[in-house]
Design goal:
The structure holds two protein chains of two kinds. Chain A is of the alpha/beta class. Helices cover 52% and strands 15% of the residues of chain A. Chain A has 14 helices and twelve strands. In chain A, helix 3 links the parallel strand 1 and strand 2. Chain A starts with a helix and ends in a 22-residue tail after the last helix. Classes of the chains: A alpha/beta, B mainly alpha. The interface between A and B is large, with 51 and 48 residues.
């Protein structure tokens, strides 16, 4: 058989293989879109109306008398630039009983000395129960200005390790894990504690909505004027955050399959977190891992429980403004997601884990595990197959257009939910900017994101550990004009 | 196949048009909202001036020419009703009647969406006529817990709540008895009439949840006759009920709880022992200081901690006992030293547990 004949005989097989591969990629793409559509429908049913958020006095009147004490746990590692402002924002919350536990996780910059100076810290003999593992604590400090501010200075062990130290030192039945570089809404705890008040014996964790603070005016550790960032990268992330928190999280919460509570803000039952051994220090997806482990623990023991999400924006965070930082963050998220998914793969499509195993884990598999692989494979194979003459370009174009337009449709839906329910961006100009972001993200940003996620996959396969560095620009603290 | 291709393109087009229309509607809605907001601020100011004039009887009527003015007057009047009492409140209620507020609220509580029903249930506490009471009592059976609680709160304000046992039965049937809002309501009821709440434990087959609600509510009773019921609840078979009863002892702050607290120090559940230590400190039962020192050797960290805190709260006697204990070398001594240091009575070097 000559080489030519040999190639000729292979062609039908190549064609067959290409057709199937493209078919699989299309099916995954369509399934992802369907998941997003279902989530949009479910979220729109569960979103409260805007006027439900308006009356803060009434909220205080209703919730404060029975609100349980909460310990805010904020791990800080080399956060000298933002730690004072974010600590102040935590100390000015509108909540009847809470304490702030800032955990200095072996910072090598001036984080601790700045805290000592600004908050008049003095060494404290505060006793605590060592119920979860973490690196040794060097010293606990108590503020001489704020009775409810505790600073824990410990050896560096990573975010999860610092959170575990915070869990040990905290004394409230609920603890709220927050990032030390985030700013909280003054009513964040009153909003997020609500599910614990309604179902005190069942709810074990509640996540809140996180928003990008870039572009907003900040004063005294508070967002005083909400603005949509004008820089492209933060703008695109703002669109992503709105979509993720108002659609995916709300829908999964409503369906009882919420698997992720963001590390930037989440309230947990201290006992429930201790029961599963606290945060896992061996993964970069410690927030996702903890929630999944809590689900698993309760399902396996037949204990009734709920994990919820609230729609109200409770926390503002500075999103990366540089590609390198964003890439590092997204690789880390992907790696953390995969580590957690595969660690708990036993739950995937396992009826013993109910809706969580069948629906929640399937969503994760489709979106987090297969999603980036299918999309990037599509980007590579479509031109290859086209030039090989085995792909009908009309179909390829039609599917690509459908996928992109579907993305725009879902994002527009999330914007509509934001407008009807929350209405947090006061200017018409902000809406135009968000609309622009919705369109632009499909051309370049989406592909880059998938590329970073593939890199995250690679790091996962290579069993890479560690967080990488994030460069922060700092908040715009220009005084807001009087309205 | 061609038809399939056409369908994909048409789907894309339909989605694109939907997305674009949604976006344009949002922009338009926002633009109208911004315009309305500016106009509303002006109108609200004018309406408030008229309302204040009416409350002071400088005006005999409040002229409200447009629908928007009526809505604003209604919102402002409701806000003011929560701030004023007596004659001024009566005038405001009369004004609300005139603009059809009561009728609208009665309609909303029956047919509105969740938020409308909740708002109406809260607002109707301004009236105590039979029709309003009937509507509020009907709303107690609402499928939404917030609406039930709002209706119950309003009935409480106008003193027309159904008997506590009927209320408890209703909340239990709806599965909301464990909610903190319900516990708060029963605390309010106990403040007004502790006997009505105490009697609930006598109901045949009373559930653990209801006994816990009662135990929790009696802490706010302010009537020391509640101690008798709490004494029995502090020996309940359910741990949560015992804990709630001991917490209530602490809130009541009456030394009559001494026996029950001393008994709870030997409870097999650490949660109960810890709560008992807390209550002893809160009441200031220094007669129990010796037993609390013994609790400092408890296996549970929380019991040791609350015993130490309780001793600090006892004052001189407790602090002296803790200082003596801190001089030894034991688990209890370490806890004593750390808690003393935390309260500023002792300074330690090289801390951390």
């Amino acid at each position: 058989m000559t080489t030519g004949n040999w190639i000729q005989s292979l062609l039908p097989w190549v064609h067959f293989f290409a057709t199937w591969l493209v078919g699989i990629i299309i099916v995954i793409g369509v399934a992802q879109n369907l998941v997003a559509f279902v989530q949009l429908l479910v979220a729109s049913r569960s979103m409260p109306r805007q006027d439900e958020f308006d009356d803060s006095e009434m909220r205080w009147h209703q919730r404060a008398p029975t609100a349980p004490p909460i310990s805010l746990v904020a791990p800080a590692h080399n956060e000298a630039g933002t730690v004072v402002e974010s600590t102040r924002s935590m100390l000015e919350l509108n909540y009847p009983h809470y304490e702030v536990v800032v955990v200095n996780d072996g910072s090598t910059d001036e984080t601790l000395s700045i805290l000592q100076r600004e908050f008049a810290l003095r060494p404290s003999g505060r006793p605590f129960e060592a119920v979860v593992q973490h690196k040794p604590i060097r010293q606990i400090y108590q503020s001489g200005i704020y009775d409810n501010l505790i600073v824990v200075d410990k050896e560096n062990g990573g975010k999860a390790d610092a959170l575990n130290a915070g869990i040990n030192v905290s004394r409230s039945p609920l603890f709220c894990a927050v990032d030390a570089d985030s700013m909280l809404e003054s009513e964040a705890l009153l909003y997020a504690v609500y599910p614990f008040l309604i179902e005190p014996d069942k709810v074990i964790a509640v996540g809140g909505t996180i928003r990008a603070a870039n572009g907003c005016r900040v004063r005294g550790g508070k967002v005083v004027e909400v603005r949509v960032p004008e820089r492209l990268l933060p703008l695109l992330q703002t669109v992503e955050y709105i979509r993720a928190f108002l659609i995916a999280r709300m829908a999964m919460s409503r369906m009882g399959v919420l698997t992720l509570i963001s590390g930037a803000f989440g309230i947990f039952s201290r006992n429930a977190a201790i029961a599963v051994g606290g945060y896992d220090t061996d993964t970069v997806g410690e927030d996702y891992e903890l929630v999944l482990r809590m689900h698993r623990y309760h399902i396996e023991r037949g204990i009734e429980y709920e994990v919820r999400s609230v729609a109200e924006p409770v926390c503002w965070t500075e999103v990366p403004e540089r590609l390198a930082s964003l890439a590092s963050q997204r690789r880390r998220w992907q790696r953390g997601g995969l580590e957690t998914f595969f660690r708990h793969r036993r739950m995937f499509l396992n009826p013993a884990y109910g809706a969580l195993g069948m629906i929640g884990m399937s969503f994760s598999f489709l979106v987090d595990v297969l999603g980036p692989l299918a999309e990037v494979l599509g980007y590579i194979l479509v031109p290859v197959f086209y030039f090989s003459g085995v792909l009908d370009v009309r179909y390829a174009l039609a599917f690509v257009a459908l996928t992109f337009v579907f993305g725009v449709f879902i994002s527009a839906g999330s914007l509509a939910l934001e407008e009807v329910s929350l209405h947090r961006h006061p200017r018409v100009r902000d809406l135009w900017l968000l609309g622009l972001g919705i369109l632009v993200e499909n051309f370049g940003y989406r592909q880059l994101n998938n590329l970073w996620r593939i890199q995250g996959w690679w790091e996962f396969l290579r069993r890479k550990k560690g967080w990488g560095k994030m460069v922060r620009r700092g908040f715009d603290t220009t005084p807001a004009p009087r309205s | 196949m061609h038809g399939f291709l056409t369908m994909i393109w048409w789907s894309s087009l339909a989605l694109a048009v939907s997305a674009f229309s949604t976006f344009m509607i949002l922009v338009l809605r926002r633009w109208l909202y911004a315009r309305r907001l500016a106009r509303t601020a002006q109108l609200r100011k004018a309406v408030l001036e008229k309302l204040f004039g009416y409350m002071d009887e400088q005006l005999t009527d409040v002229p409200l020419p447009g629908r928007r003015e009526v809505t604003l007057a209604r919102e402002a009047a409701i806000d003011l009703c929560h701030l004023v009492r007596g004659h001024e409140r009566t005038r405001l209620t009369q004004l609300l009647d005139k603009v059809g507020f009561r009728e609208d609220s009665l309609r909303d509580i029956r047919r509105g969406n969740v938020e409308d029903r909740r708002t109406a249930a809260m607002a109707l506490q301004l009236y105590d006529d039979e029709e309003t009471v009937k509507a509020l009592r009907h709303a107690l059976g609402d499928r939404n817990v917030d609406v039930c609680i709002a209706a119950a709160d309003s009935l409480f304000v106008i003193d027309r709540l159904p008997p506590a046992d009927v209320l408890a039965e209703q909340f239990e049937a709806q599965g909301v008895l464990h909610a903190w809002d319900v516990r708060k309501l029963f605390r309010d009821i106990a403040r007004r009439d502790q006997h009505a709440v105490s009697r609930l434990v006598l109901i045949r087959g009373v559930s653990d949840t209801l006994r816990r609600v009662v135990a929790d509510a009696l802490g706010d009773a302010g009537d020391y006759a509640a101690i008798e019921t709490l004494n029995s609840l502090a020996k309940d078979s359910c741990i949560d009920v015992r804990v709630a009863a001991l917490d209530s002892f602490g809130r009541l702050g009456h030394p009559g709880a001494q026996k029950a607290i001393a008994y709870a120090f030997t409870d097999p559940a650490w949660q109960v022992r810890a709560e008992a230590a807390k209550a002893a400190g809160a009441i200031g039962l220094d007669i129990l200081a010796g037993t609390m020192i013994a609790l400092m050797n408890d296996d549970s960290w929380w019991v040791r901690f609350h015993a130490a805190q309780g001793l600090v709260k006892l004052g001189g006697k407790g602090i002296h006992a803790l200082k003596q204990l801190a001089e030894f070398d034991s688990q209890a001594a370490r806890m004593a030293a750390l808690v003393l240091d935390e309260y500023g009575y002792h300074v330690l070097a090289g801390l951390g547990e």
